Amino acid sequence: MTGKRITIRDVARSAGVSYQTVSRALNDKGEIDVSTKQRVLDTARELGYRPSRFARGLVRQDSTSIGLVIPNLLNPYFTEVASGALDAARKRDWHVVVYDTADDAGQEQSTLSMVGSQVDAVIGYFSQPDAVIDQYTSGMPVVQIGREDVTGRFGSIQVDGEDGVHAAIAHLAAGGRRRIGMLDYDYDEPSSRYQWYAEAMRERRLTGCVMPAAQSIEGGQRAMAAMLEAHPDLDAILTYNDVIAIGAMFQARLLGRRVPADMAVIGFDGLAIGNMVEPPLSSVRIDTRQVGAVAIDQVGQLLAGQRPEVAVIRAELMLRGSA
């Protein structure tokens, strides 16, 4: 590296850690293990690193800031996850900055392009390929939520709802329901939740039907109307998430179906808002606050130069009044 000033990123690259980890090691901050700290200090000494006046201002920040990138603040699922992350960050005296991408790929990429200069680490729900995320975050600690087959250096939190969905179909079948449909996420490919539903239906030799639904109450209403028009003998519905389920339940009642006597409804997420409708919504429940808390914990491990194992949050059936 002779001939140019050694930077904090040079030290990070040579030591095989993030530049945030170098900052913590040089300034004797927490969230870094002893061996990683020593490796960073040895590397800095070998390279002849001397922080510039400007760099000293950057690395001596009093608090860690986390960027939380979510698709839609209007969806209470993401609000609950954010609440869990904020609570866990508060216990560490960290700050969280929330970015809403409006479920738009272009806005997501724009957010990624600026987030690296504003925070120390990123947590998010991303649709961009891993290579694109890596390009924009430049070695920064990143935790991806709800995405399968995460590669490379990223932390990862996955939701496993297979047992919960199987339990939901088993419950409906045990109650005499035989015409069980699903409102899936309106996307290019069937979701993993649909795949769990289809497998559970096959195991019970039941014939299913699926209809795409936008992730909103209105989307649930439109999809339910289309589903009942195509399958008027339907007697139960499983939905991709709770906001779709609430819309589906409203629409079923508007069309003269009693819930749950004529039509059982089960959502997915187990949101608190499900207790605010009548009847209360049954759901395959995720511990949303745990998702946020685990994400913050993984950021802590990444900042300390560690590679966290993939975290799996398992969902389970929660029966209320709608099924």
UniProtKB/TrEMBL annotation:
Q: Does the keyword Lipoprotein apply?
A: no
Say if the entry is tagged with keyword DNA-binding: yes
Record-linked CDD domains: HTH_LacI, PBP1_LacI_sugar_binding-like
InterPro entries found in the cross-reference section: HTH_LacI, LacI/GalR-like_sensor, Lambda_DNA-bd_dom_sf, Peripla_BP_I
Can you tell which superkingdom this protein's organism belongs to?
Bacteria
Alphabetical keyword list: DNA-binding, Transcription, Transcription regulation
Q: Which SMART domains match?
A: HTH_LACI
Domain named HTH lacI-type is located at 6-60
The cross-references to Pfam families, in alphabetical order and at most eight, read:
LacI, Peripla_BP_3
Name of the protein described by the UniProt record: LacI family transcriptional regulator
Phylogenetic classification of the source organism: Bacteria, Bacillati, Actinomycetota, Actinomycetes, Pseudonocardiales
